[in-house]
Amino acid sequence: MGVPVKENLELQSRKGLRVSDILVTVLVSLVFGIVYHFWGSVYSLLKPFQADELLYGMWFAAATLAFLLIRKPGVAIIAELAAAHVEVLFGSGWGLTLLMYGLIQGLGAELVFAAFRYRNYSVWVAAAAGAVAALGSMVLDFYYSYTDDLESWLFIAKYGMRILSGAVIAGLLMVLLAKALERTGVTALLRPASSKDYEALDDPRHG
Amino acid sequence: MSFWGPVRHTWLHRTNPVVKLGVICLLFFMTVLTHDLDVIIYQAMIFTVCLLLLSGIQPWKMLLFLIPFMMAFLASASSMMLFGKGDTIWWQWGLFKISEESFYRGLHLGFKGIAFAAEGLLLVTTTQSVDLFYALMQKLKLRPKYAYSFMASIRLLPMVWEEFLIRRQALKVRGVQPARGPRRLVVRAGLYVVPLLAQSIRRAHRVAAAMEAKQFDGDRSQARTYYYPSQYSRYDVLTVGLLAAAVCCAYAGASYYPWFGIGDVRFN
C-alpha cells in the first residue's frame, strides 16, 4: 500500500500548477485588481504629497495572498500579472505600465518564497516578500520616474514608507486574511494532499 | 463596452495581437530609455496623434481620455518639480524647492506619462482580450491552461459582483448598522472581504474542475485546434512600418526643431 501512495505524491508535485491553482489565483487577483482600479483614482489625488506610499503595500498583496493560499511556485507572479491585467480589461492607458510593475513585483515576492524553497508560510517570510516586491517597484521607478533624482530626505521617506507598507500590508495583513480564509475551510480545496494525509489512510485501524 | 467601441476598423485592429504587443513593448522600452526632453515631447505628441487616428474611436470620445492624461501629467510632474534635486534654484519655500533642473525633469516626466499612456492605449483600444490570449497560445505557445484560466476568470467576475450584492443584502437583513467613521469602515470591509474571497475560491475551484475534465489544461493533448485561428497578415507589416515611421518622425522633429535643447534631464 505504501508504493502507490508515494507514486501519487510524486505525480502531484511533478504536475506543477493545475488549472484549479491558476484559476483561483487569477480570480482572487482580479478581485484585488478591481479594488485597485476604483481605489486608484482616489489614491492618485494623494500622490503629490507622497501620502500614498503608506498604502502602497496593497499593490503587492495579491502576490503574497495567492502564495499563502496555493503554496506553489509561480503563483506570486501570476497573481501580480492578473491584478495588473484588470487595467488592460478596463481599457486604461496604464495597463502595460502596470503589467511591467506587476511582473517585477511578483518576481520580487517569488524570489523570497523560492529562497525558502516554497515551504515557509510564516509572517516573516510574507513580510520579506512584500518588502522585496517594494524594492522591485523602486527599481522600475528609477526608470519610469527618476525617483533617484528626488531630494534625499524625500527619497528615504518615500521608499521607507513603501517597504514598511509592503511588509505590513502584503505581509502581516495578508497572513491574517489567509488565516481567516483557512477557517472557512476553502483552502482545503486547494492544497494537494500531503504525505501526512496519505499516512492517515495507511493507518491500520482503517483496515 | 459599446460606448467605447470603435466606429471603424483600422489597420491596427486587423494586426495580429502578438505583433502589436511586441511592437508596443518595444516602443515602451524606447520611451523608458529616453532621457531627452525634446524627444519625449515629440513622442508624446506623435503617439497621441497616432492614437486619435488609429484607435477607430470617435475623436471626441477619445478626448475624454485627456482627463486621466492631464491628471497623470500633474501627478508625475508636480512632485518632481517641487522636490527634485537641482542646483539653479528658482523658488524655495520651506521644504518645497523648484530648481531649473527639477522643473525640466518634472516637465519631462509629464510628457513621458502621456507617451506611455498613448502607447498603452494604442494596444488596449484596438485589441480584444480573447484575441490576445488566442494569439498568445498559437503564436507564442503560451500553455492553454494559463490562457483559458485568464479568459474564464474574466467571465467569473460578474458573479463576484453578484456575491457582493448578496452579501450586502444579507448584512442589511441581519440589521448590521451602516458604516460611519473610519474605524467602522474598516470593520465593514472585513465583513465583506472574507466571504467574498471564500466564495470566489469555491467557484473558481468548481469551474476549474469542470475545465480539467474537458481538457482545457491541454496537458495530455498533443495537437490542439482553436476556435479562433490566429494568423499573420500584411497588416502586421503595415503597422510595424507605420509605427517605425512615427518613431523616426519623433527623433527627426527633436533634432531639427528642438523646443528646449537641454539634452539629458537626469541629475549629473
From TrEMBL, chain A:
The keyword Acetylation does not apply. Signal peptide: none annotated. The chain crosses the membrane at residues 21-39, 54-70, 98-116, 123-143, 163-181. InterPro entries: ABC_thiamin-permease_prd. Pfam families: ABC_cobalt. Keywords: Membrane, Transmembrane, Transmembrane helix. The keyword Membrane applies. This is Thiamine ABC transporter permease. It comes from Paenibacillus campinasensis.
TrEMBL record, chain B:
This is ABC transporter permease. It comes from the Bacteria. It comes from Paenibacillus campinasensis. Keywords: Cell membrane, Membrane, Transmembrane, Transmembrane helix. The chain crosses the membrane at residues 18-34, 40-57, 64-83, 114-136, 237-259. It is a multi-pass membrane protein. One of its GO terms (cellular component) is plasma membrane. It is found in: Membrane. It holds the Pfam family CbiQ.
